[in-house]
Specification:
This protein is mainly α and 141 residues long. It is built from 7 helices and no strands. The longest helix has 25 residues. It is globular and about 45 Å long.
Length: 141
């Protein structure tokens, strides 16, 4: 199954942007964490369905942090943590603004359900691909 088809399948199960990114990241790591997926739902719809910052931007940052961030009191974050996050958020801001008019859900889809169906799966897939690219280029996958 290709990435876009997997995104659409997860959408049909009722998952939204940041949850889908979490599931894809967990699958990439060969792990399961239903509570993480549940918690990521708080980023959906522009952070708590406020139509603010797109859940793909916040979810993508969380996905990168899953592989690079500090996981316990005895650990330190990867030296690539902040540079990887900066690269992703800069890419997201530039690409999504150019293509969709901004990085907030309000800018991207407004109140148009048809746009959500058309745009969101594309943004989710592109965000996941960019996260993977950033992680691979840094030798973190």
């Amino acid at each position: 199954m290709d990435l876009f088809d997997r995104v659409m399948e997860l959408s049909r199960y009722g998952y939204f942007c940041s949850q889908i990114l979490a599931i894809l990241g967990l699958e990439l790591a060969g792990e399961e964490n239903p509570k993480l997926v549940q918690a990521m739902g708080g980023l959906d719809g522009g952070v708590g369905y406020s139509k603010g910052c797109c859940g793909c931007m916040t979810g993508g940052a969380c996905l990168i942090s899953y592989f690079t961030g500090k996981a316990s009191a005895l650990e330190v974050e990867s030296p690539e943590h902040k540079p990887a996050l900066a690269e992703f958020t800069e890419w997201f801001r530039d690409e999504i603004t150019a293509e969709y008019g901004g990085i907030d859900c309000e800018d991207i889809i407004g109140n148009n359900a048809a746009k959500r169906v058309e745009y969101c799966p594309q943004i989710i897939a592109a965000s996941f691909e960019k996260c993977v690219q950033i992680l691979e280029e840094r030798g973190l996958l």
